Amino acid sequence: MLVKEFKEKTGFEVMATPKALEKEISGVFVGDLLSWVMGHSKPGQVWVTVQTHLNIVAVCALKDLSALVIASSAQVPKETLDKAMEEDIAVFMTDLSAYEVAKKAAELGC
Amino acid sequence: MFDQHYFVIKDDYANAGKVSTNIKTLLKQLGVDSNILRRIAVACYEAEINMIIHSYGGEIILTILDEGYVNLMFHDHGPGIEDIEKAMTPGYSTASKSAREFGFGAGMGLPNIKRMSDTFDLTTSTSGTRLKIGFKI
Fold it and tell me: A8, A10, A7: which is closest to A104 by C-alpha?
């Protein structure tokens, strides 16, 4: 599934560049400890987290993750969004919990 | 042989990962295989973060050797690692409360670096820590 299809099917609020929407999603990874995500996520996964600090963008870019989903209405600072746009990483925002996001993604076949 | 120097500043969370991203971009342009590239990126990021969180700052030196090897040297100005054995234990962390709030301090940094690299050499004293890691490309 492409990021743009994930956008259409979930209806989550999103900020993304056109390039970010064309990435292929290979699965989902849930986690809030950056080193854990660095060590265990796989390229192409969508990362679901409540972390919103600028560094999540670096982790995404370095691990070639396909997109970010910020769960539980965690507020994303402008600098994080700006950096994500610079790196062509889509940032989804939702009031669903990480569990509910993962459940929804699984239902969509991610 | 080619080398490049980068500087890392203590507590500079806003730029954390910048050096690793630059190095990844450079190596990608040189055609390094994407799986090896990700291993280098993960190890470099963890070590860069360690310097920001734990050290007084320092320098990262990237060396690309003609015989197909990438070396990364992380050299900081102290205060050193008190107990290397503990620091190498997955889950053990001395990160501050503020660092943990940002999602750092999982205690996976050094174990991740060792797991990702082909060679790993760590020496420390109160005047500084030197970490040298290598990757066959």
Answer: A10
- Domain span at residue A52 reads 3-107
Question: ipTM > 0.90?
Answer: no
What domain count does chain A have? Answer: 1
pTM confidence score: 0.90
Is the CB of residue A64 less than 8 Å from the CB of residue A51? no
Domains of chain B (ranges plus CATH)? 2-136 (3.30.565.10)
Q: Within the 63-82 window of chain A, which residues sit less than 8 Å (CB to CB) from chain B?
A: 63-64, 79
Name the minimum distance, in Å, from the CA of A14 to any CA of chain B.
22
Q: pLDDT tens, B37-65?
A: 999 999 999 999 999 999 999 999 999 99
The CATH number for A53's domain is 3.40.1390.20
